[in-house]
Amino acid sequence: MPKMKTKRALAKRVKLTGTGKMKRKCAYKGHLAPRKTTKQKRHLRNARLVDKTDYSRVKDLLQ
Predict the structure, then answer these.
(1) 20: left (phi over 0), alpha (psi -120 to 50) or beta
(2) Residues 27, 38: Cα–Cα separation, whole Å
(3) Which end of the chain is more exposed for a tag (fewer CB within 10 A), N or C?
(4) How far apart are CA 59 and CA 47, in angstroms?
(5) pLDDT tens for residues 32-48?
């Protein structure tokens, strides 16, 4: 059976931290920025960790 290929689209969006957790960027930041509040845009600027419910699914796609 051939090796599984890494999903390159996801690999470009997720980075591994030093402890092995997965870091991602926030959604809802791409467009329509003028109508969002400054506070909302400031909070979307920070990276988040992949949720534990999605962790195994994301890990399989990166293998």
Answers:
(1) left
(2) 16
(3) N
(4) 18
(5) 999 999 999 999 999 99
